[in-house]
Structures are given as C-alpha cells and as structure tokens.
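Slide 14.
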Amino acid sequence: MKRIKNVYALYFSPTGGTKKVVETLAKTIANQLEVDCVAVDVTLPNARWKTLVFGTGDLVVFGLPVIAGRVPNLLLPYVEECIVGGGAMGVPVVSFGNRNFDDALVELRNLMEQAKFQTIAGGAFVSEHSFSRSLGAGRPDANDLEEIKAFGVDIVEKIQNKWQYEAPVCVAGNNPPNPYYTPRDRHGNHIDIRKVKPKTTDVCTGCGICASVCPLGSIDKENPSIINGVCMKCCACVKHCPEGGKYFDDTGFVYHKEELEALYAERAKIACFL
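Slide 15: predicted structure.
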C-alpha cells in the first residue's frame, strides 16, 4: 500500500457549495491519516493558468459542480490539459442542485482516470442550486456534513485495509455519458439558455464584487453591467452581490428555474461509492 503524505482539496466552486463538500471530505481524510490537507481553489481564471501535477503519495479530492447533468463543458479543456494525476489516489466529487447528478460523477471519474489518477472512491452531494435560493437551500447542511465525514472515514478504512488499485471505482451514471441535460417547456420544446447573460439593476454601486467572483472573467471591472465574455450561469455574481443588483430575466431561464423549484423541492439524497 502506498503511504499517503498529502491530501489535496481541489475544487471549482463559484458559490461555495462544492468547496464546502470537498474541504470537509479532504480534511476528514487528512485528519484520519494524520497528514496535511492543502486546499487548491481553481474557481477564478488566474488560478487556472498553470498545470497541477500530483504523484504517488498524494490523495486528491477533486470537486466540480454539476451543470446540465455533466461536468461543466467550459472547464473540460482545463481539466483535460492542466491536471496531472501521476499515480495519485483520486476521489471524484460532484455537487448538484437537488435535481440529479446524472452522468457528471462517472464523467469526472473518467477524466481523473485519463489524467492518471487511481480512483478509490467517489461521491455526489447536494448544494444549493445556482439558479435558486430555495432549491437545496442551506445544503450541504449539518446532516450532509456528518455523512461526508463518515464517508471520509470509510475511505481511510479502505486505504488502511491494504487497498490496491485494480480498476476505476464503480460509480452511478451512463458510460459514456449521455448528452447534456436540456430543459424543456410544458409543450416539450427545448429551452435554450446558453447565450443568456445576467442583467444589472440601478442599485448597482459599481463595487466590482461581481467581476471579482466571475469564474470566467466575463464581467467588465469598470462597468459591471457589461458582460464581455461567456456566461456559464453559475450565478456567482447574483449570489455574491451585496445589493442584489444582478439578475436574470430571460423568459426561458425564469421558466426553467420555476419548474426546477416546483418539481424537485423534495430533499434529494447524496450518493457515496467505495
């Protein structure tokens, strides 16, 4: 069995839910193993310019939010080109907004395997939905965190039981993944929100917080009402604005948000795989 020297909490987390999950799990594992836990936050553009190289002796808990049932497509080039496992143990983690994680976990597992991680476990956890303040509100909550910690203990037990890598961890999902989830209206017609961008109200003070938290660097720092680049609908700008000055008013976006809140209000369960 390879001795773990470092545990890494690696995450992309625009609104903080994925960060909370990954850091809780990674810290639990590190505490059980009595080693250091290092947080690696790749949410902002300036954190994704260099290659991350791990190796034997490392265990990496890697977390991403689920977007349309998959790994965020705008992050795929970075994940595929700039993260190197080098034989490290890997734990893929996805956080979803109380609907479903669909094929995101198996997709992230596959990406980590391609990067030469040896995946030992994987999990899908609920965080507040990026579009909504009611869907998955407050999650991960105290009950979730206890389950995450218990999962961390189970991972350490698996390591200490002289686990040897033979195959990727078995997780739920279609392999290869299905196409990205496409929202539909009540008549079955596709709702296309890919080019939708947030708008700005008159309460904006120009503080620039929205520009500073945009994971794609798309909001103009001098004039936050201008969106110069692509919007991934992570809603970091909406949820971090202290004045409530960012919002979406696209008809399709609003309809999709309201449908999600109506159809998936019941508390979704987390899923852990060893």
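Speaker note: Residues 142-160 form the longest helix (19 residues).
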